Amino acid sequence: MFQSSQQEDTGAVLFFKGPRVVKEMLYPEFEAVLDNVVGLSDYSSQRVKAVYLRINGQLNITGAVFFCIEFNAEGEADKQWNIPFIHLLETASTGPDMGAGPIKLACFSQCPVNWMSAQMWDPDLGQQHNSFAILRDVVSSNRLGLVRQLDAAPAWSQPTPGKPLFTRSDQSDTVEPPVLDASSQVLAPGEQQLASGAAHQEQLSTLFKANQLQLSTLKAEQNQQLVDIHHHYKEQLAELQQQLQAETDSLLLHQEKNERLEQLQQQQLREFTAARETSQRQMLRARKGDSEKISQLKQQFAAETKAAVSAALAPLTEQLEQAKVEELYRRESNTALLEQIEQLQADKQRLFVEGGDQLLAKLVRSGIHFVAFQPGAGEMSIDIEQLSDYLEAPDVFAAQHCDCDLDRYRDWLSHFQAPICNEVAGGNRCGKPVARVDMPSYFIGGETDRCSSHTLSAKTVSKIMFGGR
């Protein structure tokens, strides 16, 4: 599948679990895993971190690719996985000196092919679990049984076992520059000066590479932290919005209930009024007959009316008061939720501008710019104030950068990813290859994504020639 570019180099794959190497295999064995000839049941349904190493005849590492691979429930490797190790190493930047000069290094923050970085991971540059020191010690132990060649060792000194090759700048260890072996040939004074200058230049180059790798790793970690913070606050905001919607629905339900109770109360009052008027008419008719009877009827009517009204209004009044209290409580709760949402939105914006102990602001003041790549828009420089908008909707940001609306940009992106004719006739898509339009501003829906037989101009000519048949 992949072969080493040098005959004396050997390919090997090492699997990590935390800071430790738990499995080693030669590259042909890894090819058998990729072809699903051999399964790794220990990694069932897992995404595993691994490193492809290129090892020379003196058991020194000359190249490393830090990659991730997924396994299904049966322990079989993802059939869609395919990382060209040799191509990456040929185009990769250099890393630390592992005994044979600076190695070729490809990782998440130092990937020569941008779209492959999602399948990469960054080595640990800390002092306690330095990934490069762990790899050096594992290769030196030679558990793979590689044959060490007896050729003369290079003039570069071997790194000290157990000491990290690259460490972060906030730790005491620094990058070990390559030095000449003590057994090297004694040079003339002029040649010694040239050799000293070359060694100093190599030391400066190694320090610069170390700082570049450290800065890339810090940027990747900070970006991931920002994405995690954004995701956390987005979920929290959605949860609060759901709570607010539930409270709003409950408030509307109680308002409808209150309205029904008020309507019922008004209906009962009308019935009582009608009954009173009827009684009054009866009283007027009976007044001529017997004043005592009238008095008794008045007292009886007053008592019955008062009792009936009190009996009817008591539960309704109590329910109405309770509903009003509940409505007031929910309004206060909704007001508190709205204030909390506004505070979360303000905190979210503040975290994007001042998060990570103002690391983003420090990076910007140091001359570092955030650059993102989107199809059609190319590399876009993103201000720190725009970072939140970009993470929220990259497609919208890219469409604005290309001076086109979002629907047109998405139509162009579908055409750019699959340049075929999208004409649908008889329920079937044409599917003929068409010329790819590289810029969204040049894309015309229904024209540039159609073959020569289905463009608007071809349809117009066909209607003219065949009378619309």
Notes on the structure:
With 469 residues, the chain is α+β, with helices and mostly antiparallel strands. The chain has three domains: 10-181, no CATH class; 229-365; 372-466, no CATH class. Helices cover 51% and strands 12% of the residues. The protein has nine helices and ten strands. It has helices at 27-34, 85-91, 131-141, 189-287, 291-365, 387-392, 394-401, 406-417, 456-466, and strands at residues 10-17, 20-26, 47-55, 61-70, 93-97, 102-106, 370-374, 378-382, 424-425, 428-429. It has a six-stranded mixed sheet, sandwiched between helices. Helix 4 (189-287) packs antiparallel against helix 5 (291-365) and helix 7 (394-401) crosses helix 8 (406-417).
Task: Summarize the topology.
Elements: E1 10-17, E2 20-26, H1 27-34, E3 47-55, E4 61-70, H2 85-91, E5 93-97, E6 102-106, H3 131-141, H4 189-287, H5 291-365, E7 370-374, E8 378-382, H6 387-392, H7 394-401, H8 406-417, E9 424-425, E10 428-429, H9 456-466
Parallel strand pairs: 4-6
Antiparallel strand pairs: 1-2, 1-3, 3-4, 5-6, 7-8, 9-10
Protein name: Chromosome partitioning protein ParA
Region (Disordered): 158-177
Organism: Sinobacterium norvegicum
Which structural class do the helices and strands define?
A: alpha+beta
| Distance, first to last CA | 55 Å
Main β-sheet, in a few words? 6 strands, mixed
Rounded average pLDDT: 80
